[in-house]
Amino acid sequence: MPYVRSHGNQVVLVHGERDKLTGKVVQRKLFTLYSKVEAAAATGENNQADTRYFRQLLEEANPDIKFDWNSINRDIRQKMAELPDLYPVRQARSEGGFQKSLDEFMRQILLTDPQSSKSGQEILNKYAVDLMVLVKFIFTRLDQSHWHSRDTDEENLLADNDQFCWRYEVQGKEVPADIEDMAAELYESGDYDEAKRMFEILTRLFPTYAEGYNWLGLIDLKEEKPKEAVENFRKTVKYGRMLFPKRLVKSSYWNDHSTRPYIRGMKNLCVALIQAGRYKESLDICQQLERECGDAGDIAAPVLRAAAYLNLHYWELSFDTALERIDLFPSEGFIAGYAAYELNRERDAIELFLHAALNKPHTACMLMDRKEPKCLCNSEADDHNSGIELCRLLPRFWQMQSKQSRKFFKKLGEVPLVRELIDEAIDCTRNHSTLRGQEHSTNFKRWQELESRKFAEKKTPDILRQLNESMRRKVKVQQIED
């Protein structure tokens, strides 16, 4: 429970916490009051709106802590006499402090003259990227069109009267949401260079910004730099763990947004380790996911583990593990199908591969050396991206895949019935967003039928027969030529 204590001529709101490494109880400072005027506002002496805003900021910043505001306000009033009447530095934080820093920065820019100083040229070239990003930040803050776009609810009315800069004091360690959105949009639009510059600056300004390291790791994976991605995802995990609220049960993981950077970091770390060829390390992370991340880990770990096993040529383990989550992730049928073939279970390989192919037809085209059709809707684009991610998860398998396996799955993709069903699955996907009425209903039912495991099982005997006939014809042709 937070309590109030004196610290020189300041009044500090602190909370006792047990250090995770030493086991000792340490005090964590939640907030510092510097003057009588500020303390009076915090306790609502003159205006109840001020104290509501003060409480709201602290509770939002510390959701795992329960505040006894009656006791806290009483203690603040008792210690108010120890405070100075005014504290100019704090009250001028948004004016005088900002002015001083801005003046010094502008002075440095003017004195760093590239026309008359070689060192000036070198400095400006070194920090050119940072300065260009800073220009973006400045224009974002000066764009007055955003200043009046907020809803005029009570929360924002309170924030408009933040005369003591409380929000800065409480949330000064967090990346502003609009800046994070700006950087994330650059990534989503495919502008990875610009996104990388911005996230690198943000993680430098906010060293514990877990999501920033996660974005940098994702960019590293896009640029095929898995070793660098591993390091960024390790930082995501490290700082993401610090965001966890206390006494959170594992069943609430992922539902609680504060756990998501940690879980995302763990999943992506596993992917990066696989792409870096560090498969046994990735299996350790899978184990950690299951042990520490509740349901979210139980769902993700088998998918990643199945890929690691396939790279290691642990066929039986890969097959069994892929089947664990095939109901949730039909694309696991691709991995199970590859493993089944190596186990001399051709019928299972066909059924599982077909089931996956009719759920992810674009991915199937990539894997079967068939020309992939153009993506015409979001579902097709997601399918295409899933195919790329799957290919990146199996680097050693592709490198070491046997000629017989390559030949089998390429021939499978050439079977007329398989080609017809994949084309139909693509048509159903496209029609889903364009058809209306009865046609939409009919298309949807057929789409569901194609994606079912039962349908793949039903079609497998026909596909196996066509595949064998194709193989026999090729053998006869070869014999005639010989």
Oligomer: single chain
Structural class of the helix and strand makeup?
mainly alpha
If helices are DSSP runs of H or I spanning 4 or more residues, what is the number of helices? Answer: 26
Strand content: under 5%
What string gives the helices and strands in order?
EEEHHHHHHHHHHHHHHHHHHHHHHHHHH
Radius of gyration: 30 Å
What is the spatial order of strands in the main beta sheet?
A: 1-2-3
Percent helix range: 55-70%
Mean pLDDT: 86
How would you briefly describe this protein structure?
This protein is mainly α and 482 residues long. Helix content is 69%, strand content 5%. Helix 13 runs antiparallel to helix 14.
SSE order and pairing:
Layout lengths: L2 E5 L2 E9 L6 E9 L2 H8 L4 H14 L7 H11 L8 H4 L1 H19 L6 H9 L1 H15 L11 H7 L5 H6 L5 H12 L3 H14 L4 H13 L3 H16 L18 H16 L3 H14 L1 H18 L3 H10 L7 H11 L3 H14 L1 H7 L10 H16 L1 H6 L2 H12 L1 H16 L5 H15 L1 H29 L1
Antiparallel strand pairs: 1-2, 2-3
Q: Your description of this structure?
A:
By secondary structure, the protein is mainly alpha-helical. The chain is 69% helix and 5% strand. The chain has 26 helices and three strands. Strands 1-2-3 form a three-stranded antiparallel sheet.
Features:
482 residues; mainly alpha; 3-stranded antiparallel beta sheet; 26 helices; 3 strands; 5% strand
